[in-house]
Structures are given as C-alpha cells and as structure tokens.
Amino acid sequence: xxxxxxxxxxxxxxxxxxxxxxxxxxxxxxxxxxxxxxxxxxxxxxxxxxxxxxxxxxxxxxxxxxxxxxxxxxxxxxxxxxxxxxxxxxxxxxxxxxxxxxxxxxxxxxxxxxxxxxxxxxxxxxxxxxxx
Length: 132
What we know:
- The protein is an alpha+beta fold.
- 26% of the residues lie in helices and 38% in strands.
- The chain has one domain (2-131): YjbQ-like (Jelly Rolls, Sandwich).
- It contains 3 helices and 8 strands, in the order ββαββααββββ.
C-alpha cells in the first residue's frame, strides 16, 4: 500500500490526483489488475469525473453546497463540519480502477479527484495496486 499526502488550501476543493495515482500504478510494474483508492477521512472523498473543463469541479462543489448547506442550524453535530460529513458520504471514500498495460483505464475526459469538504488540511490517500 502506498500513502499519498494531499494538501488542500480551501474549505471545499477538488484536487486532481490522476497523475500521482498513475505514477504509483506505473512504478508497481503491474501490467493488468486494479488499483484501489481509499480516503480515510470522514469529511473528504474520492471521485472520478471530467478533467478537461475546470468549471465541472466548480459546478459539482456548488451543487453539493446547494444540496447540503453549511448552516449549522440544521445539524446536531457540534464541531461545525456536519455538511462535510454528509458530502463525504454522498461522494464516497473509495474508487477502484482497472489497469491495462500498466495504465489506469479511464475515459478520455476522466480524472481522479480528491474531494475536500472541511479544509484546508493535510490529508492522506491510500493506494493499493493488485495484479490480476
């Protein structure tokens, strides 16, 4: 298992980690298999989405804010980050990507994004490459 550190600078942010994960896959020398990507934080997540147009990231974060407002008046959790917990549950904490020819099999416009919902913070991202 490889651990990547992700530094976030904003309260809510989507960080493109595609190249870092691809480097782990390449260095593993696995020709065919899967890569598991896991975020061990309750106010962060991981998703796969378009990486050609940065406005997609903006739109995703804006709609998550619309769906899950930050106003504490709705929540019982007293730390002030309840919306981050809910957004993490909606986005999810893991992804699995197929590997062929030592590369992740992603669509033309797809990238892998670490999603921060309670930043800025220093976070971890666990990556496990499995041959098969």
